[in-house]
Amino acid sequence: MKKSRLLAVDAARGAAIAGVVLFHLVWDLEFTGFISGVAFHPLWLAFGRSLAGSFMFLAGVSLVLAHGVQFRTRTYFRRLTVIVVAAVAITIVTLLAFPSAFVYFGILHSIAIASLIGVVFLKLPTSASLLAGLAMMALPWFISLPAFDPRWLAWIGLSANPPLSNDFVPVFPWAGVTLLGIAFAKAVDIGKNRMISAGADCRFLARLGWLGRHSLTIYLLHQPMMLAIIVPLSRLF
Predict the structure, then answer these.
(1) Rounded to an integer, what is the distance from CA 96 to the centroid of its chain?
(2) Does residue 183 contact residue 122 with C-beta atoms inside 8 Å?
(3) Once rounded to an integer, what is the mean pLDDT over residues 27-42?
């Protein structure tokens, strides 16, 4: 049961990271001049936002799977530390590579904060996660202030004109998506749901599950590897 249930969640995360690789491949090809007019098309940007939403939602689901029955302190803080270190590394690398559009608060930063917020809701009623999540998602529609525009405040998500970034996933509204993931996992009783547990013998899901289990490593390495190939090719052609 546990293996199948985790496979379903890992497969969903695997599909999301495969989408991220594709999204960045298109961005790299446009950045180097191989293609034009795709990476910044509204539909393609919406695809990128849907991938961010998938990861934020699955972060909530994973919190319930890992700590819904019993909060495991060491496991939680070990995972949080890995995410924070990776987020800081992304900031440093992108600051050196793209100083005018570096990632000061991207998907990993947002998952780290959402994990801190989400753990508060693990023992609260499902309705609390649902209502708080919807409220967090709605708030930026009603509050957007220039006072939040500087980078040291823009990460909150209430800015009128946040500084440019190659990946910007602020707390509001995105941590709200994580709370919806928590609400969903609780509502369907994800640890015992047979539909979630199905598919253990499917090879396609198994392959997606492998990608999902290694999603952080893939996320950190895929862009340097692709750019190392595409940039030299762009100079040849």
Answers:
(1) 23
(2) no
(3) 95
